Description:
By secondary structure, this protein is α+β, with helices and mostly antiparallel strands. The protein has a single domain (50-66, 73-223), classed as Glutaredoxin (3-Layer(aba) Sandwich). It contains nine helices and seven strands, in the order αβββααβαααααβββα. Helix 4 (114-128) runs antiparallel to helix 5 (131-143), helix 4 (114-128) crosses helix 7 and helix 6 (150-159) runs antiparallel to helix 7 (164-172).
Amino acid sequence: MSRSRGSIRLSRRRILQTGALFGTAAAAGCLGGDSGNSNGSGNGNAGGEEATTERPTLGESDAPVTVAVYEDFACPHCHTFNQNVTPQIVSNYVESGDVAYEHYDFPIPVDETVSWQAPQAARSVMTQADSQTFFAYAELLFANQGSLEMETYVDLAGEVGIDGEAVEAAVDEDRYRQAVEADRDEGIDRGVDGTPTVFVNGQNAAESGRLGYSGIAQLIDSEL
């Protein structure tokens, strides 16, 4: 599978200058319950065409290190991670060509509607554009986490130059439901039981006790 080349300068206004991630209380992240697929509140793709996308990825396909991040757009800890940690990884490792940064959806779900709709909106953006636009849209989703609904998905699509009506149709039809479920199933197989979960070249950062940016950076450095 080809990966979108290049990187995107994610917003750095919220980057933590320390190596901490988001404090002890948030370190555990949003925890999942049933390890099977959730039915959520979707309509089962009634009348819609099931679709998939390439893996949303920042960085070069031949980067020596792959950082895979499992997230739920409704998870407040994923919001903090996206705002404070992701920009540091992008700035310090993706832009230098050392890391390919991959996004995986893992609806716990924190919210029975948002956890399934938001990733499908983002997948629609990916289909219409590329990985860079996907990550810009994902950042906006997290930044507006408290008001995610159909109108928000449409409005934010316009902010990244994407047809909001196409996004609305994709979400309404559950067009990417199976693609999101496939990510979740893969995460379960890899031992993911909460979000965010970060793998550095296949090594779970939490299992090694490296929950913050500095720990993730140490894992990346050990692979270079």
